[in-house]
Amino acid sequence: MFTLENLTKIYQHRSEEVHALDKITMEIAQGSFVVVTGGSGSGKTTLLLTLGGIIHPTSGSLRVKGASLYDYSSNQLAAYRNRTVGFVLQTFNLVPYLTALENVMMPMLLNRDLEEEPHNRAMKLLDHLGMSSRQHFLPRELSIGQQQRVAIARALANDPDVILADEPTGNLDPTLSGEILTVLKNLNQRDGRTIIMVTHSPLAAEYGTMRLSLKDGRIES
Amino acid sequence: MNSRFSLATVIWREIWQRKSRLISGLLTITLGIAVIIGIESVTSVSKEVVKKKLDLLGANILVLPQAASVDDYYSADIDAPTFPEEYVERIATSMLPGVDNLSPKLSRRIKVSGYPVVLTGIMPSNELASKPIWQASGLMAADLKLACATSSNPSDTTRLDPSLKRGTVDSLAATDVWVGSMVAERLKLTTGGTVTLEGKEFKVAHVLPETGTVDDNRIFAHLHSVQQLLGTGAQTSAIEIMGCCNAISDGLLGKLRNILPDTRITTINSIVNTQIETNKLMSKVSLILLVIIVVVGSIAIGNYMWANVEERRKEIGTLITIGFTRRRIYRLFFTKSLILGLVGGTLGYLLGTLAAMVLGPQLAGLKISPIPIYLLWSLIVASTIALVGSWYPVYRAARLDPALIMQET
User: Fold this and answer.
1) Span B267-316, pLDDT tens digits
2) Separation of alpha carbons A28 and B409, rounded Å
3) Contact A107 B322 (CB under 8 A)
4) What is the pTM of this model?
5) What residues contact A17, with CB distance under 8 A and at least 6 apart?
6) Nearest chain B alpha carbon to A82
7) What pLDDT, in 10s, does the model give residues B18-69?
8) Min CA distance, B339 vs chain A (Å)?
9) A180: which residues sit within 8 A by CB, 6+ positions away?
10) How far is CA A210 from CA A177, A195, A220, A221, B87, in A?
11) What pLDDT does B376 receive?
């Protein structure tokens, strides 16, 4: 699915260079559940956002199904973020003035190739995640566990191959964390989606089929 | 409702959910436009009123023989040059827009019972039109048109006064005269009495009211009677013209000079300048206010949009992760600004018009009616203010680094 060769991202912090990613070379097979761990500032989130088509690497290459991602035009990259990957974030990042249903429909607004009617598809996804009864609720009217479920439903809106999850259980208690991790596990095992999850949680790390530990932008193990 | 979910829904929801924060931005545009519309509504009506009042000051263009000076015109010297009366018809048939009244006259200084007076031949109804003070005295009940507005249309043939044609004037008989107040007092002339001019007896049809001008020392008779009396033939010494001030600004004098190349055409400066300067002042005041409101409005909208972008940083990052391009981010925010401008422009127009209609009669004694074209201008100005004010905050929104935003908690 992903082929990384000497992938490097350097930030300029005042007069110093900071290597957020330092010559990372690896393969991520389709259908993997990759767990990325590491300390603060190790480059986990940078890696995730680079795989998601948001951060342009300073050097090296990143191929997605054989195509060089950062040779894409900005429109192609936007389409990639819209259809190939889905983001699940620690702070959920739901649009606060839209209902649960509308949040799930948001990515579908940009997808003209969607075969299913957006409203029906969003309802199915919410139903699948046990949220159909909360479809007209605004994010602030939902519990944090419910908000994360809606965020997962939104990530699945355009049926992406890959779910990129950045600390998806970071704000949840152990029970809710277990529920969300089970959802992600099902998306991997039942649907065959590639999951790449950044986490600090040892419990969450147990769910991965492949573990990656980063330190100072390099793969430690 | 959800099956029609679109980008417009997203924009509307954002506006509606945060409407309390929108009020200050909307209020700025609305009040700004309301001030402009209120002032413009009053100004446009007051311009017309001022124009009509200034027209009442009388003729403002003078056509003289090439060799004559304005002093010759007032002194009515015996040797003062003349030109053919036919020039009057030449101007009248030229259909020049902005010419409201033509008043030909022939003046000569004569002595009556040893007392020096100026005998002036006039076409009575035309003379009345150029001397509103005589009309105000009720001297004649002539139906005279004074407004400039009708003459701006060259196709409007009603402006051609039939009395311009020779022999059609009957309001001042061939043997009647009007006598200026000072002459009447000196020669003890009264209405209904007689006076002998150059050996011919005339009946005093009216004693004119005191005007405080050279007219008080004049005796007015029909132009053709004076021509005959003085033996000048069909000659005149001057044509007074009431020209619309806007037409004068637009080059009426030049056009008259083309028609009558062998004459001297001048403005009675004080009147014309007052007319033109008054209109210019009103336009300048409106323009200055417009500039102030555009600048202040843009800053206020910019401030509101800046705060809106800051508030929505995380949302912008999220939109980028789900596939929004910078162009879509621009569209999202600029559409919101445009809505703000259109709503503010409409409300501003309504509020400004209403204020002008309510306050105009009370404060300025003017009856104000809604001016529909101002709605279009309100929408254009308000939208421009909103878009210009939003430009930098929106540019900044589209340039936000999603990687940094995603790492903000």
Assistant:
1) 765 555 665 666 677 677 778 888 888 888 788 888 888 888 888 888 88
2) 29
3) yes
4) 0.65
5) A10, A11
6) B323
7) 777 778 778 888 988 898 888 888 878 877 776 666 566 556 788 888 887 7
8) 18
9) A145, A148, A149, A152, A168, A169, A172
10) 19, 10, 13, 11, 106
11) 94
DSSP for B97-115, please give it. TTEEEEEEEEEEEEEETTE
**B169, pLDDT greater than 50:** no
Q: What is the mean pLDDT of chain B?
A: 78
Sign of CA dihedral A49, A53, A55, A57: positive
- Phi and psi at B50, nearest 5°, equal -60, -40
Burial of B198 (0-12, 13-18, 19+ CB in 10 A): middle
Evaluate whether B103 touches B239 at the Cβ level (below 8 Å): yes
Residue A91 Cα, gap to closest chain B Cα (Å): 7
Please state whether B289 falls in left (phi above 0), alpha (psi between -120 and 50) or beta.
alpha
Taking one residue from A and the other from B, the number of pairs with CB-CB distance under 8 angstroms is 88
Q: Which of B111, B166, B179, B104 is nearest to B139 (CA)?
A: B179
Contact (Cβ atoms closer than 8 angstroms) between residue A157 and residue A113: no
Write the pLDDT tens digit of every residue in B310-337: 888 888 888 988 999 988 988 999 999 8
Of the pLDDT bands very low, low, confident and very high (cuts 50, 70, 90), residue B151 is: very low
Residue among B18, B318, B322 with most chain A CBs within 10 A, to mutate: B322
Element (H, E) at B235: strand B235-236
Rounded to an integer, the average pLDDT of B116-136 is: 71
Distance separating alpha carbons of residues B381 and B393, to the nearest angstrom:
20
Contact criterion met (CB < 8 Å) for B323 and A75:
no
* Closest-CA distance of chain A to residue B5, Å: 7
Q: What is the pLDDT of residue A147?
A: 92
- What average pLDDT does range B87-94 have in this prediction? 86
Q: Are B139 and B211 in contact (CB under 8 A)?
A: no
Element (H, E) at A215: strand A210-215
Half-sphere exposure of B16 toward its Cβ, with a 13 Å CA cutoff? 8
Which tokens sit at B96?
């020049």
Residue type at position B22 = L
Q: What is the ipTM of this complex?
A: 0.90
Q: Tokens in use for A175?
A: 């029970």
Q: Give the residues of chain A that fall short of pLDDT 70.
A: none
For residue B346, give how far its alpha carbon lies from the nearest alpha carbon of chain A (Å).
26
What confidence tens digit (pLDDT) does each residue in B196-255 have?
999 899 999 889 888 877 888 899 999 999 999 998 899 998 888 877 766 666 677 788
d(CA A187, CA A209): 13
Asked whether the beta carbons of residue B323 and residue A93 sit closer than 8 angstroms, the reply is no
Which of the 8 DSSP states describes residue B191? T
Nearest CB partner across the interface for B5, out of A46, A78, A102: A102
Residues with Cβ within 8 Å of residue B19, at least 6 apart in sequence: none
Would you tell me how many other CB atoms lie within 10 Å of the CB of residue A46?
25
List the one residue out of A108, A134, A111, A110 whose CA is nearest residue A120: A108
Q: Do A98 and B324 touch (CB under 8 A)?
A: no
pLDDT recorded at residue B349: 94
